[in-house]
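Posting this for the archive.
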Amino acid sequence: MKIRGGKDKEKNELNMTSMIDIVFLLLIFFVMTFKIVEQEGDFSVRMPLAGGAGAADITDLPLKLRLRADGDGKLTGMALNEIDLGVDFDKLRGNVVSLIGSTAPAGDDGDGPELEIDTDYQLRYQYVIEAITAVSGYKDGDQVVKLIEKIKFAKPRR
């Protein structure tokens, strides 16, 4: 009978270098792609005063800007709070100034006026940019007058 000795045994070792490299690569990936989000529950909600049946402030509700387009994507008309403006962006800016006044909008506390843009699906992007430019402010000599900074978009109409 032949007894096998310990000299024929091969020692199997795992090479840990490549596994450690992968772990560090994953760690670096997750650290670099980590995004810090705002803390939940930090809402800036403005509630109406109790029993206030007076006229509402224009900054309480978002202004609604409707941009209509033809089949080719050209702007055919604009309406700000159901007031028809044609296709004149200067008239749009004038109406915004008359509605909110020339006071500067509020900063980060959320008290400034808000605009909701409602467009036709086929409207060209350049008209949306011109509308945003018209309502966001203008230059008065060397001074920049800010009008509306909070702009949101409604779902495009088909």
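The helical segments are 17-33, 89-100, 125-136. The chain has a mean pLDDT of 78.
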